[in-house]
Amino acid sequence: MAAYSSIPSSRPTRYSWETRWLHWVTAVLVVEQFAVGQLAWHLMDRAAPLRAFLVVTHTSLGVLLAAVFVTRMTWAMTGGRAIRFPVVTFQDRVARSVHRLLYLLLGGEIVFGYMARWSTGRPVIAFGVPINSPFPELLGGTHSFFSSLHHWNAWLLFGLACFHAGTGFHHLLVRRDRVFQRMLP
């Protein structure tokens, strides 16, 4: 246990409220989007009214997630009042790499979702407002390609997010090193 308690007391204790807010909004939306997307995908042609509602919900909240993602990336790149915890150990480097991969997968998921919808020639509808494609009509197999990328990337993203959450709980319950508390409200 002594190895875990050697964290210098001069380290900040938690991230800024903006960073924590963006983190938890992103987490809730990713879980919601995965659940709603999988349910809509499994319904396919059955329960058409429910599936239509799920697709509208998925696209609307997907646009909200895209806005949160852009805000989060802007916040991360400009620094804002975000606290930067030092990268010292191998585990710190792994954590930083996992965070970057989460950003990459989430950004890809958003792009694949837009492209899957736009490839059909239909706009993305967000809360009743159409977002038209900036592209001319795409080739026939493009929809299947982007839909497949969107589907499988969602599984990768969700799996890595579960790993991320699991390591957070490992820090909270096993290591008890207060790393988890950095992100609590």
Automatic annotation (TrEMBL):
<keyword id="KW-0472">Membrane</keyword>
<dbReference type="Pfam" id="PF01292">
    <property type="entry name" value="Ni_hydr_CYTB"/>
</dbReference>
<feature type="domain" description="Cytochrome b561 bacterial/Ni-hydrogenase">
    <location>
        <begin position="14"/>
        <end position="185"/>
    </location>
</feature>
<dbReference type="GO" id="GO:0020037">
    <property type="term" value="F:heme binding"/>
</dbReference>
<keyword id="KW-0408">Iron</keyword>
<dbReference type="GO" id="GO:0009055">
    <property type="term" value="F:electron transfer activity"/>
</dbReference>
<keyword id="KW-1003">Cell membrane</keyword>
<dbReference type="GO" id="GO:0022904">
    <property type="term" value="P:respiratory electron transport chain"/>
</dbReference>
<dbReference type="InterPro" id="IPR011577">
    <property type="entry name" value="Cyt_b561_bac/Ni-Hgenase"/>
</dbReference>
<keyword id="KW-0813">Transport</keyword>
<keyword id="KW-0812">Transmembrane</keyword>
<feature type="transmembrane region" description="Helical">
    <location>
        <begin position="21"/>
        <end position="44"/>
    </location>
</feature>
<dbReference type="InterPro" id="IPR052168">
    <property type="entry name" value="Cytochrome_b561_oxidase"/>
</dbReference>
<dbReference type="GO" id="GO:0046872">
    <property type="term" value="F:metal ion binding"/>
</dbReference>
<comment type="similarity">
    <text>Belongs to the cytochrome b561 family.</text>
</comment>
<keyword id="KW-1133">Transmembrane helix</keyword>
<keyword id="KW-0479">Metal-binding</keyword>
<dbReference type="InterPro" id="IPR016174">
    <property type="entry name" value="Di-haem_cyt_TM"/>
</dbReference>
<feature type="transmembrane region" description="Helical">
    <location>
        <begin position="50"/>
        <end position="71"/>
    </location>
</feature>
<feature type="transmembrane region" description="Helical">
    <location>
        <begin position="101"/>
        <end position="120"/>
    </location>
</feature>
<protein>
    <submittedName>
        <fullName>Cytochrome B</fullName>
    </submittedName>
</protein>
<feature type="transmembrane region" description="Helical">
    <location>
        <begin position="154"/>
        <end position="174"/>
    </location>
</feature>
<keyword id="KW-0249">Electron transport</keyword>
<dbReference type="GO" id="GO:0005886">
    <property type="term" value="C:plasma membrane"/>
</dbReference>
<keyword id="KW-0349">Heme</keyword>
